[in-house]
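protien #1 (seq + structre)
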Amino acid sequence: MVVEIFRTNVQEEADKNHIINGIQTQFPAYKINFDLEDCDKILRVEGDELKPENIVEYVTHLGYVCVPLE
């Protein structure tokens, strides 16, 4: 199981839900959650064979900032 954490610029609950729904449609096996209370608006994705670049590409395509945290 791989866990990746990303910094985003997502502010609204509706945007968060839209992104989660989209990622789950594209990658149904992934477990996804957001922490909008965190200053980095954390997106956490967990899954087997997770490729962080796919998440970054998808979220960026939706018009949001998404940067992997080290």
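ok now protien #2
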Amino acid sequence: MSDAPITYASAGVDVEAGDKAVELMKASVRRATRPEVVGGLGGFAGMFDASAIARMTRPILATSTDGVGTKVAIAQALDIHDTIGFDLVGMVVDDIVVCGAEPLFMTDYIATGKVVPERIAAIVGGIARACEEAGVALVGGETAEHPGLLDPDEYDVAGAATGVVEYAAVLGPQRVADGDVVVALASSGLHSNGYSLVRRVVASAGWQLDRHVDDFGRTLGEELLEPTRIYTKPLLELIAAEGVDVHALSHVTGGGLAANLARVLPTGMFARVERGTWTPPAVFRTIQDLGRVPQADVERTLNQGIGFVAVLPASQAERAIELSEARGIRAWRLGEVAIEERAHADGLVADGVEVVRGAKGVDGGAVQVVGEHPSA
């Protein structure tokens, strides 16, 4: 047994490195703000002036928390850490938009085996840039050093955000009507779900992250690290647009398209989604073919090229598509919604095809994905 004194530093925690990381990230965090933010970086709590909420008729606060999952392993392997923040912000704030709320502020949490100031600053810099793009204030965060629990180069990230919406404007199943249609908004790639499957497929095939893949036009690692698209501002604009009455939105994340759409449909409502309306981008076909992943499994795990869906009246679909594409997001009519009894009577329900009902504890509607994707 050594007689040497044990300090926090000798136990593996470098307080000075943490302070340096904060100094390095200050400039980027300063840009991710809103006029309502009170105080600056370094306080025990982030503060936000909510007086505008008091002028609302019946303000409803919406909150969400999430992480990035095992996509961080790709960032760590490539030693690229300034994009993972977009995945974190997208997973958190775009869940809030689903109910029609405007995300207001966010906090983040980073756990790492060893604080490397430049790496932490790169991670937070990405979070701040994503918050700036979403119009969300980054009001605080925490970096925790966990020696012995995580390896020195390992880290995980999580975050939480809060938004607000007028009660009368809340989107969801209560608005969905017979005859509505489903409009798809394209994803930027894999986003931040299914990476345990993706990494297993890639490892099993023996592919390296620096492998150039012609179908991607870049390396495998660059494709897998493509940041999650931030839909916040385009969707808020769509909700507020004249001539468009969005009834429901769904963020296509874990569980896939059918399950997440079912969550925002009322019980007794049926949605028929047509594979023939789109071709999944090359990365989805590659993962499926490389791992011989069954169709049902890949559709439950990956977004298949659709990051969001909107449910709205059929007469407004083209307007919604135009507005989305004006913001650089490809959109298309994906399917239709009907009362389930009518769907059966009109032959909308295909025999022998799985019908997904609700998900994540929600006793929602029913969704059926039919047909085949067009060839690339």
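The CA atoms of residues 250 and 309 lie 5 Å apart.
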